[in-house]
């Protein structure tokens, strides 16, 4: 159900409840006031009658006399007087109340709801001609009920009018709110379809404005993530191409030439005056050179020792290599032995992160000391591998043309981990990467 439909249904339920309760209240009040009014009129009429007809039953009165007495109560409202003769015939003695007009006549259910049992009284009068009359006085609330009906109708219609105003006002406000919601939905759909350029405008309602700002921020964040992914993908392809070129050059220059030389020497051995031992020495020399070239190519492509020797030994080897190349730099490598239990995929990430950090230190930091700490730690009862590389160099911003930091972040986040690059100018750089500690399946 739409929000608007839901609100309308709620309003209609509230209106029905208010009208029902209001109607019940109006009927109850009408009943009270009719009862009070009728009782007070009836009591007044009785008092007047008691005063006028207060003589012993034996006393005989003239017709004019009791007619005069009756006319005194003619002005009392809500009273119905019936005069019964000896022969049983009845005549109505109307008081001054007016019968309500037909259109103001309350419906039967209303009369039933607001009236109750009312008292009645009767008097016997002996007339001079020997006959007697019985006067029956009953309460008759019809005009009071009609008044209550008119008031209840006015009350009912004023509630209906008020609720209509509220209903229309809420719908107008809602109309404008829904327009904003539709604009935000359209914005979210644009983000979903990768259209990040068009931004949501500012809205007058602060809550919607906050949502729009968040949607715009989300769109910016996705846009920048997409850009860096594209850049990273381009960079990866570029590296791949470069590596292929280097390999084909190496293969061409080193392997091709060496093989041609070996072949030429093999052909030379067929000559009758060939100096076989010298040729054999040359071939051995070329083969040694070739195996050096192959080893170096393989190391570039993949740190073979990682599978053979384990992560700790490969990292030690890497650090030693950097120390050999940069004698002025002091590198402290501190790791838990448990890092050798790491799954190969995670181990490769750890190795490449340390390698990139050391490259960056040498390239950008002008540092004299680097601390590399790798630990297995528990977070929320789950093991994580945490890498911290800290130098005492010049520090610097991670923003730049390079892809090293982006690549490290991608590696870590692809494993569901966290990456942080912190630096203060002159205080060096601290890189912290943490990933879930996935253990090798076969052995520990
Ligand atoms: N240890 C460090 N000390 C000082 N600045 C650093 C350090 N590491 C990174 N930086 C800064 O962060 C920037 C981005 O580093 P990043 O590794 O992403 O790129 P790069 O090293 O310039 O190039 P690439 O790694 O792609 O060959 C660097 O240009 C440098 O300014
Ligand atoms: Mg780098």
- Provide the succession of SSEs: HEHEEHEEHHHHHEHEEHEE
Number of helices: 10
Oligomer: single chain
Measured as a percent range, the helix fraction is 55-70%
Shape: rod-shaped
Question: How far is the first residue's CA from the last residue's CA?
Answer: 57 Å
Strand content: 15-25%
Number of domains: 3
Compute the CA-based radius of gyration. 53 Å
| Overall pLDDT level | 86
Secondary structural class: alpha+beta
Bound chemical compounds: adenosine-5'-triphosphate, magnesium ion
Total beta-strand segments:
10
Can you tell me the residue ranges where pLDDT is under 50 for at least 5 consecutive residues?
A: none
User: Order of strands in the sheet with the most strands?
Assistant: 1-4-5-2-3
Biggest sheet features:
5 strands, mixed
What does this structure look like?
Strand 4 and strand 5 form a beta hairpin. The protein is 59% helix and 16% strand. It is rod-shaped and about 185 Å long. The longest helix has 63 residues. The model has no long low-confidence stretch (mean pLDDT 86). With 444 residues, it is of the alpha+beta class. The protein has 3 domains: 166 residues, no CATH class; 79 residues, no CATH class; 132 residues, 2-Layer Sandwich (Heat Shock Protein 90), CATH 3.30.565. It is built from 10 helices and 10 strands. The site of adenosine-5'-triphosphate has 18 residues, from helix 9 and helix 10.
């Amino acid at each position: 159900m739409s929000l608007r439909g839901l609100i309308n249904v709620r309003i209609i339920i509230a209106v029905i409840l208010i009208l029902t309760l209001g109607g019940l209240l109006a009927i109850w009040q009408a009943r009270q006031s009719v009862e009070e009014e009728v009782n007070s009129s009836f009591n007044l009429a009785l008092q007047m009658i008691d005063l006028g007809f207060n003589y012993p039953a034996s006393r005989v009165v003239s017709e004019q006399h009791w007619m005069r007495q009756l006319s005194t109560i003619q002005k009392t409202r809500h009273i119905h007087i019936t005069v019964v003769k000896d022969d049983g015939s009845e005549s109505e003695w109307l008081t001054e109340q007016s019968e309500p007009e037909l259109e103001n006549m309350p419906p039967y259910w209303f009369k039933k709801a607001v009236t109750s049992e009312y008292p009645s009284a009767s008097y016997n009068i002996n007339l001079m001609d020997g006959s007697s009359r019985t006067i029956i006085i009953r309460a008759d609330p019809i005009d009071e009920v009609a008044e209550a009906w008119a008031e209840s109708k006015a009350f009912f219609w004023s509630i209906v009018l008020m609720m209509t105003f509220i209903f229309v006002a809420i719908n107008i406000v809602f109309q404008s709110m829904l327009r904003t919601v539709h604009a935000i939905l359209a914005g979210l759909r644009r983000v979903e379809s990768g259209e990040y350029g068009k931004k949501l405008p500012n809205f007058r309602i602060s809550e919607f404005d906050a949502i729009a700002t968040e949607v715009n921020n989300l769109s910016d964040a996705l846009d920048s993530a997409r850009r860096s992914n594209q850049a990273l993908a381009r960079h990866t392809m570029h590296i791949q191409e470069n590596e292929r070129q280097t390999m084909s050059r190496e293969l061409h220059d080193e392997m091709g030439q060496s093989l041609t030389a070996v072949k030429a020497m093999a052909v030379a051995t067929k000559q009758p005056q060939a100096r076989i031992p010298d040729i054999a020495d040359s071939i051995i020399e070329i083969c040694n050179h070739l195996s050096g070239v192959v080893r170096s190519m393989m190391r570039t492509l993949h740190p073979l020792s990682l599978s053979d020797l384990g992560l700790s030994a490969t990292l030690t080897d890497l650090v030693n290599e950097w120390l050999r190349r940069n004698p002025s730099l002091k590198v402290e490598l501190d790791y838990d032995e448990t890092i050798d239990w790491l799954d190969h995929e995670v181990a490769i990430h750890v190795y490449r992160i340390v390698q990139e950090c050391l490259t960056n230190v040498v390239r950008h930091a002008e540092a004299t000391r680097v601390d590399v700490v790798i630990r297995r730690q528990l977070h929320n009862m789950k093991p994580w591998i945490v890498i911290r590389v800290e130098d005492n160099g010049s520090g610097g911003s991670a923003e730049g043309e390079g892809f090293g930091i982006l690549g490290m972040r991608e590696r870590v986040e692809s494993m569901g981990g966290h990456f942080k690059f912190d630096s203060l100018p002159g205080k060096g750089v601290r890189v912290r990467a943490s990933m879930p500690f996935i253990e090798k399946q076969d052995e520990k």
